[in-house]
Each structure stands twice: as C-alpha cells, then as structure tokens.
Model the fold of this input.
Amino acid sequence: MNSSTLHPRTARTTGLLYLALAVVAIPGFLIIRPMLFDPESAAATVSHLVENEMLARLGIALELALVAAQALVALWFYRLFQRVDAFAAASLAAFGLINSVAILGSAACLGGALSIALTSMNGDVPEAAASAQLLHSFRSRVVTT
Done:
C-alpha cells in the first residue's frame, strides 16, 4: 500500500466508525442479551422481557444503532480501499452491508419477541413463551453467528 493512496482523514473516520461499532455492540450483546434471554426456559425469557421492557427496548435501539454503524463502516472501508483494490473494496463493502441486514433481522426478532411477551400478559402464556423463545433461538443461532 502506498501512503499516497490512503487518505488520512478517511482512515481516521473509518477507524472512529469501527470503534463506534464496538462501543454499540458490546452493551447489546454482552450485557443486555444475557439479562433478557434464558436459553433453558421459555417462561423465564417471557418473564424477563415483561419485567424489563425498557431494557429490551434499549437492546432494540442498540441493535438498530449497530445496523447504522455497520453500514457506515462498510461504506467507509470502501472509500478507504477503493484506490488500492477496487474489487476487494467493493467485496468488503458488500459483506459489511449484508452483515448490517443480518443484524437488522436480529433486531426484528428481538422486537417480535418483546411484542409477543407483552401481549402474552392478556392471553396464552405458554404459547407466547414458546414463540418468544423460538425468535430468540433463531436470532442467536442464525442471525448473529
């Protein structure tokens, strides 16, 4: 890589966006998720979601912020490396944008689980618990791995 091909301002912006990606992801994945979801008990998951509604909404907001950060990082990596290797830069951007769509699916699953848990207070709790647990299982095994 030639130093004349990389622009310092673009490199700094990319680095800051990448740091923001980590800052937004860590609370959502390592702190909030374990507080809300019990992989062994669907009833406990629904109970946690209902009791900690604001925490669940914060988790959704953090995942949506993560989507935005991931998309911006992908685009700035493209800007950073397009002069070095245009195909590799486009591939990096494409994979980053696909990842942001997957994270968006994860946020939708979390929102669906919260919605199901909140409506279960008026109806069939076992079925709602199973549905919320299914959305969490899908989210954790397929979308975010």
